[in-house]
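Human: Respectfully, please carefully check these tokens:
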Amino acid sequence: MQCNTVTTIPKGLLQLRDSLSSMMDSLYKDPKVAALMNTSMGQYLNGHPFLALAVLVFGSMATVPIGIFLTFATVTFIGATVGFVLLEVFLLSLGGVSLLCVLSALAILSILVSLVLGACYITSYNVLNFYYSQRYQNTQPGVKTHTHTEALHLRF
């Protein structure tokens, strides 16, 4: 049995096919698309439209996760950089304050040590001076000697 039925295509569907065909022609005339279609990959995708559609869908759907990841990486990098700078500033400030405290303590300690050594020097100088002046006076005849308390009153 032969089927002699002829199907007719509706007029709206023919117009849609014509507009789609003209849009594809204008797309193929674009220099960038023409350069892509002249490559072996372009010819392969032209021969396998379902694979071309799958690559197009994958590429369009992959942009959102890739964009989110790149945003995360950028924010993390900026945060780490700012955190590193702030940490360095904090550590340098802490080290500077520690150095200032140590140097201040050394300055105070050096003043105290110099005061103690100066007092020891003055005391030993006066004691030795008093001792040798008493000894010198005791060895010379006719020189009046002073008592210890009188000598102290005379000195100071």
